[in-house]
Backbone:
């Protein structure tokens, strides 16, 4: 087999067929045809995406709501960088807590140098902001004052007029005789006119108010820029201060402090005598236990987006695994036995359409029932000790989210597996009968392999469903992950919120895409006929 | 009298409920002796595959019984190897895997090396060694049929039931495989029952030919003994008067049975209105 | 040589630290890694500051501070043990302990802050209120603004067969009681809780519903509610975005009312007494840091606190918005920025002490609005407050801090019996004496009387 064929086969299995013309072009096969295909499969999508970015950048600023404006691609990119910077800073702090010796001293020195560089800049940006603020205030005042004056004067005039009309009506009312129906009718009419006039006057005032509002809400780029500059510096400064603080009080420092103290206690213990001995002994044992605590301690790092992404992926796979472990055997049983299929059909029909939002609280309660005291539960403690996933701090919320994912995503696999098993080729069964294969070998050697392509098609749909469900589940369970990130950022209600949502859109989309690709590869590997997998 | 290795006694098979029953096979009797090569010939749709099903045990008779080596056979088993019309290879296994699966099941006591040797021997026998690691969908129809043949042979059945194994193949491949089957049969001297719709094929290969009357209510009719000497050479056979006579006799008997069946059937058939759809493309 | 010198200085600093901590005998905590929950509100500051300024770490605690989506989940997470403790509404430990809502024995040894809430109404309602009371239609209307100008709007709506809808954050939240107090003080009935009506809308003229704090501005803008009572930054957010007008702060409804507490389960406190003590110590220091002032009485640390709180994993709102209320200012309208030095109080006025009288006020409100369905004797109020509020833990922590020199003798009410002096600093001027809860209940026009 030639290398070319191997490469083509590999990209075919990997579902990367759009690369095919590139490979063929490299081998010089029908260059024109390949270039046409490259144009179609690679250049067109890229251009479409660029067009999308352009239109997005063009139209986004046009749409403004009171809650914020739709971010442009560059704002989203900045926001993504911000999210990343936050991650890097937190990671550095966590590392700083563990650093010892030279590397610690070096980092400390670096941080202090940078901090001293920042100090003069702080004053400068503050000044700039004050300046911008002043400029904005005076600009606002100069724009608003005339309108405001007009508003006030017309408002006063109207109020005066209203009062006068009211008084006039009052006076007339007093003068009307009890049996003067015509006059009474006239009064009622005039009163109505009076109210209608108030309404129109109010309407006319509203336009002034709207103008003022508009001026207030207008962008003031100079000030926005100043605020951004100030925030950038203030945030970096805050980070450095905390970093230095962490370095100065990190584990190593704490341990050496406690050690010195312990030495002190020990020497005084051996010097002391009599009743004091026990008191000193207590000090020693307590300090020793403090030392154990300090040696075990870790910087309590908040979960940042990359951690949350990994945790989400872990969660979706956990749920997916549970779903597969349930759906495939049940699907096989259903496919084999019409009785089981008939018995389970109502459940499938009943539970399949239920939303994750409903399952989550139920699983929450169930999981909570099994794990009453998470910190001391063997499962949670055991999972925390595992090497690769220990840092994820798997907790009941994680388990409940994973189970919700499982519950919502097992149906496509179940139904497809049942279908695959039920629609097994009769000839294959005849082969098994002629060979007198027993139940288990018939199942393992004939039934399962022949249903695998459909099962994997189901698994692929399941994983996609699971990924969509997960975000909702995490959002509700506040299990650390993308869903919680979305909810937290939404709850922040900051000027960055919308941009962060867009960041999440791309992160979720890209990961969903990767998961789907992985499943396609698996599906291709188990499919024994040449039928192409839908992309 | 010599005991038949496989025997059908007054066997009938039908489908459907009592009120609307279709009898596929009625009152079929068949006796096949050891080492005999019997060919059953009939029109398509006459119930040939059902007959193979009966012989292999995959189909249960409604009345009558199937005897294999003197005992009533109710279940299929590897003593009666079936070569299915549409190969029935497991598409997720390679050529090797397909044959290994069958061999391992039938000869569980073989060691790994013995098993490998066994499987390779049969692949060699059908000349498929170069394609040993290929999957069925990568093979041509003839190659697939050869795999199927090798699988059937590899379980060393006492009786080989070949269900129109060559009908889907082109003439050249077909001739090749015919020779191969005859060669293997002559080497191993197994009992073979070949189902076919090709009179030439039947005469070329079999010791005895039994026509199957067209269904419904199909049954086996009088058999013809083929007295031609072996090995039979297909190039000269066409001019062999005995061959021509036998072929004509069988063909005529089949045609006659078919005409009779049609007459019988037309009584029950609905009279179709005498209109034909216009073939617009022809205009 | 230079290296040696720097090493010596390093050792010197280490020794300096050592001598500082020598007096501070570290507590032998049962648990070093803790998880505390909070809701994205500026009054979570003591927890965040204790972490970021290293007060927890100095007690040997590594604390993870985790945002919670709503008060119910927060409480559930504390009860189920997913969280060790949390920033809680004052009413939550009390309600949980007496079994209104989820039943669980929750205690508190630390009050996190005073005041800090506001009532915001939509622009349309504000305009209508201005029509009803022309005095409100100026740039800086006189405070306090009562609900009197709202009453005609409510009545008009009732005639049209509608009820004004307002949002609050939780059935047992301070916000619920404050909003009810404000409405009832102007004769607007906010509805009663009954055994069958756990939404608290029986006889309501204005219907109140639960909305999580961060959702308030969006819900107001969508028109599902016409006003809300919530903590910061969600009132300032409404002003910044121009979707509503804060009419009053809770400082005007009840001067220096207790707001949030730090709650843990009774079981947790029993199992981790030293840890609890260490946590309260750190929180007291955080409170003191937050309320530190210079000689002119200007809060010196609040800008830094606002900067920390604006981090996305804490409150996360824009620094500008958080800064307003945290540094002692409040925008009632874009044109109406006022100094409110006591908008958030984290330490002054003995605020961090867990007062029994605070607990009793919440109990009287629960009874007043029918969340407590039957009449209870005065003793029950005293007993329940004692079950929830644990000044003993607070005082022990304070003693340790005093010995370490981290607080002053005058910072703590050492000799109090846990009851604040009777006060009539309410919007309607009714006297509250915690030692006579029944009398207090009976002094209101609207609501249950015993």
Residues:
């Amino acid at each position: 087999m030639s290398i070319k064929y191997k490469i083509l086969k590999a990209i075919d299995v990997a579902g990367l067929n759009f690369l095919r013309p590139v490979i063929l072009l490299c081998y010089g096969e029908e260059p024109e045809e390949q270039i046409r295909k490259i144009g179609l499969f690679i250049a067109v999508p890229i251009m479409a995406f660029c067009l999308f970015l352009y239109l997005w950048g063009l139209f986004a600023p046009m749409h403004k709501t009171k809650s914020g404006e739709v971010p442009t691609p560059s704002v989203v990119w900045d926001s993504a960088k911000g999210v990343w910077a936050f991650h890097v800073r937190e990671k550095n702090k966590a590392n700083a807590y563990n650093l010892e010796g030279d590397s610690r001293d070096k980092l400390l020195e670096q941080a202090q140098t940078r901090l001293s560089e920042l100090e003069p800049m702080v004053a400068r940006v503050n000044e700039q902001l004050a300046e911008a603020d002043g400029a904005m205030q005076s600009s606002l005042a100069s724009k608003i004052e005339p309108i405001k004056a007009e508003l006030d004067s017309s408002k006063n005039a109207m109020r005066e007029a209203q009062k006068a009309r009211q008084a006039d009506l009052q006076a007339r009312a007093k003068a009307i005789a009890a049996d003067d129906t015509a006059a009474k009718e006239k009064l009622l009419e005039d009163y109505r006119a009076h109210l209608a006039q108030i309404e129109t006057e109010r309407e006319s005032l509203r336009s002034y108010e709207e103008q003022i509002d508009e001026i207030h809400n207008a962008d003031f780029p100079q000030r926005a820029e100043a605020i951004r500059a100030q925030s950038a510096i203030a945030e970096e400064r805050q980070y450095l201060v905390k970093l230095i603080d962490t370095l100065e009080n990190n584990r190593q420092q704490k341990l050496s402090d406690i050690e010195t103290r312990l030495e002190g206690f020990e020497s005084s213990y051996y010097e002391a005598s009599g009743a004091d001995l026990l008191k000193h002994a207590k000090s020693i044992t307590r300090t020793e236990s403090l030392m154990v605590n300090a040696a075990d301690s870790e910087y309590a790092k908040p979960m940042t987006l990359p951690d949350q992404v990994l945790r989400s992926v872990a969660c979706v796979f956990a749920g997916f695994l549970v779903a597969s472990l349930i759906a495939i055997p049940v699907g096989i049983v259903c496919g084999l036995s019409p009785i089981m299929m008939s018995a389970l059909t109502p459940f499938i029909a009943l539970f399949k359409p239920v939303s994750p939002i409903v399952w989550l609280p139920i699983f929450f309660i169930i999981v909570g029932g099994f794990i009453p005291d998470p910190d001391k539960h063997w499962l949670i403690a055991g999972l925390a000790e595992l090497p690769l996933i220990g840092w994820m701090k798997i907790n009941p919320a994680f388990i409940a989210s994973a189970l919700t994912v499982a519950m919502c995503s097992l149906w496509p696999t179940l139904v497809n597996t049942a279908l695959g098993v039920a629609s097994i080729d009769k000839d294959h069964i005849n082969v098994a009968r002629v060979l007198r294969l027993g139940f288990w070998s018939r199942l393992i050697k004939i039934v399962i392999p022949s249903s695998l392509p459909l099962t994997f098609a189901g698994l692929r749909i399941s994983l996609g469903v699971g990924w969509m469900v997960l975000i909702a589940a995490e959002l509700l369970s506040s299990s650390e992950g993308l869903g919680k990130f979305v909810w937290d950022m939404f709850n922040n209600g900051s000027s960055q919120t919308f941009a962060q949502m867009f960041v999440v859109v791309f992160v979720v989309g890209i990961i969903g895409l990767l998961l789907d690709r992985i499943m396609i590869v698996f599906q291709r590997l188990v499919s024994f006929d040449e039928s192409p997998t839908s992309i | 009298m010599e005991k038949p290795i496989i025997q059908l006694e007054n066997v009938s098979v039908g489908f459907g409920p009592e009120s609307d029953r279709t009898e596929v096979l009625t009152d079929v009797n068949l006796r096949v002796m050891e080492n005999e090569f019997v060919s059953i010939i009939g029109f398509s749709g006459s119930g040939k595959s059902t007959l193979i099903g009966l012989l292999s045990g995959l189909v249960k008779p409604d009345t009558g019984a199937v005897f294999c080596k003197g005992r009533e056979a109710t279940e299929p088993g590897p003593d009666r190897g079936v070569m299915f019309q549409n190969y029935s290879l497991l598409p997720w296994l390679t050529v090797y895997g397909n044959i290994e699966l069958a061999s391992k099941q039938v000869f569980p006591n073989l060691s790994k090396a013995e098993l490998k040797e066994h499987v390779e021997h049969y692949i060699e026998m059908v000349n498929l060694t170069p394609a040993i690691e290929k999957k069925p969908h990568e093979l041509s129809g003839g190659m697939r049929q050869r795999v199927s043949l090798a699988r059937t042979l590899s379980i060393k059945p006492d009786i080989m039931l070949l269900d129109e194994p060559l009908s889907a193949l082109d003439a050249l491949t077909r001739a090749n495989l015919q020779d191969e089957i005859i060669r293997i049969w002559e080497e191993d001297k197994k009992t073979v029952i070949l189902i076919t719709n090709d009179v030439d094929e039947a005469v070329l290969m079999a010791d005895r030919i039994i026509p199957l009357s067209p269904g419904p209510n199909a049954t086996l009719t009088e058999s013809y003994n083929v007295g031609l000497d072996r090995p039979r050479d297909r190039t000269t056979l066409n001019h062999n008067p005995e061959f021509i006579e036998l072929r004509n006799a069988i063909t005529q008997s089949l045609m006659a049975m078919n005409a009779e069946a049609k007459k019988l059937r037309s009584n029950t058939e609905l009279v179709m209105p005498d209109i034909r759809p216009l073939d617009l493309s022809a205009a | 040589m230079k290296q040696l010198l720097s090493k010596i200085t390093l050792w010197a600093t280490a020794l300096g630290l050592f001598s500082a901590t020598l007096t501070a005998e570290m507590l032998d905590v049962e648990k070093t890694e803790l998880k505390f929950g909070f809701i994205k509100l500026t009054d979570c500051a003591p927890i965040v500051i204790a972490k970021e300024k290293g007060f927890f770490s100095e007690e040997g605690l590594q604390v993870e501070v985790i945002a919670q989506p709503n008060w119910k989940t927060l409480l559930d997470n504390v009860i189920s043990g997913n969280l060790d403790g949390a920033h809680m509404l004052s009413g939550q430990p009390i309600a949980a302990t007496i079994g209104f809502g989820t039943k669980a024995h929750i205690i508190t040894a630390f009050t996190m802050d005073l005041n800090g809430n506001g009532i915001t109404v939509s622009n349309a309602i504000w305009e209508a209120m201005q029509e009803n009371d022309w005095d409100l239609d100026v740039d800086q209307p006189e405070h306090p603004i009562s609900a009197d100008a709202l009453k005609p709007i409510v009545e008009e709506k009732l005639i049209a067969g509608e009820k004004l809808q307002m949002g609050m954050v939780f059935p047992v939240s301070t916000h619920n009681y404050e909003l009810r107090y404000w409405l009832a003080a102007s004769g607007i009935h906010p509805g009663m809780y009954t055994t069958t009506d756990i939404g608290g809308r029986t006889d309501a003229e204005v219907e109140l519903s639960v909305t999580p704090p961060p959702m308030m501005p969006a819900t107001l803008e969508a028109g599902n509610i016409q006003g809300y009572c919530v903590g910061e930054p969600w009132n300032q957010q409404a002003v910044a975005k121009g979707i509503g007008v804060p009419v009053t702060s809770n400082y005007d409804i009840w001067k220096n009312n207790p707001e949030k507490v730090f709650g843990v389960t009774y079981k947790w406190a029993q199992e981790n007494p030293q840890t609890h003590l260490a946590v309260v110590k750190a929180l007291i220091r955080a409170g003191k840091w937050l309320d530190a002032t210079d000689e002119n009485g200007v809060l010196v640390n609040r800008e830094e606190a606002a900067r920390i709180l604006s981090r996305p994993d804490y409150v996360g709102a824009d620094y500008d918005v958080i800064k307003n209320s945290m540094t002692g200012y409040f925008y009632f309208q874009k044109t109406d920025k006022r100094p409110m030095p006591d908008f958030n109080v984290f330490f002054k006025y003995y605020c961090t002490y867990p007062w029994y009288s605070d607990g009793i006020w919440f109990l009287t409100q629960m009874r007043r609005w029918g969340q407590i369905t039957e009449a209870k004797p005065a003793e029950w109020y005293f007993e329940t407050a004692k079950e929830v509020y644990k000044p003993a833990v607070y005082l022990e922590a304070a003693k340790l801090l005093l010995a370490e020199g981290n607080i002053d003798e005058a910072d703590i009410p050492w000799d109090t019996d846990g009851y604040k002096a009777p006060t009539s600093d309410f919007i309607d001027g009714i006297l509250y004496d915690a030692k006579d809860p029944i009398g207090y209940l009976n002094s209101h026009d609207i609501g249950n009387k015993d």
In short: The longest strand of chain B covers residues 22-32. Chains B and C do not touch (no CB pair under 8 Å). Chain B is about 35% helix and 20% strand. The helical segments of chain B are 48-56, 95-106, 112-125, 141-154, 171-188, 199-205, 234-237, 241-268.
